[in-house]
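Notes to self, PaaI family thioesterase:
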Amino acid sequence: MTQPESAPGPSGQAAHFRALEALYAAAPINRLFESTLVIPEPGLARIHFTIDQRYFHAGGAAHGTSYFKMLDDAAFYAANSLLTDRFLLTTAFNLLLTKPLREGPVTAEGRWISGQRRVFVAEARLIDAEGEEAARGTGTFMRSRIALAGLPGYRTE
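result:
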């Protein structure tokens, strides 16, 4: 009796997306911000997370660090999904906070806007449990000298 062949792992673009998701999960900062990254297609990234009282400021809503971190990460990974060899670096990020985030699930959705050589521009928005936008941001990201393949967590196999 022969063993069935195991299904091959993702290749090409899908392998890159899964490797970026693994890189995100391996980042030490995400021990503080429990969240999951999903890259469904080039130029699009979604981060699912839950706001609870650990992230509140004294006024009883999420502190701005939560907004910035998730918006920056979603926009960053949307842009880096288009680049398979190098890690991008955030060079600027503008935020617009439109609604306090209370406890509950939130999705950060990032989309690439422009750039494919040295500088990339991407935007992101936070959507709360009611489906309302709570914040948005736009970032610029520059190609670095850091090879993705050399980073702990980035695995294409």
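- The chain is about 20% helix and 40% strand.
- Residues 12-150 form a domain with the Thiol Ester Dehydrase; Chain A fold (CATH 3.10.129.10).
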